[in-house]
């Protein structure tokens, strides 16, 4: 803000990705919230996928699942793959099953769901 440069949707994808990779969950949640309220940028599926990654990488799989369930946009394969990958890493078989089922519902020929399970 202090630089006078207005961020766009790509800026927020970068910021959310950075927060995810360094596990700055609270900062990422804050950035996601102000994206729309302060900058008028409506969340895209890219932003939502970043948020799922942010929560899941930090071990907050339940919160990531809740985020998906409450998304304004219809979750796509990328969102579900993000969750599935984190479930695999963290050993959450039940949630992995849900993610895989949703991937296959959207794209029945998707082999990633089978491989990650």
Automatic annotation (TrEMBL):
GO terms for molecular function: RNA binding. InterPro entries: PPR_At4g14850-like_plant, PPR_rpt, TPR-like_helical_dom_sf. One of its GO terms (biological process) is RNA modification. The keyword Ligase does not apply. Keywords: Repeat. It comes from the Eukaryota. It holds the Pfam family PPR. This is Pentatricopeptide repeat-containing protein, mitochondrial. It comes from Noccaea caerulescens. The lineage of its organism: Eukaryota, Viridiplantae, Streptophyta, Embryophyta, Tracheophyta.
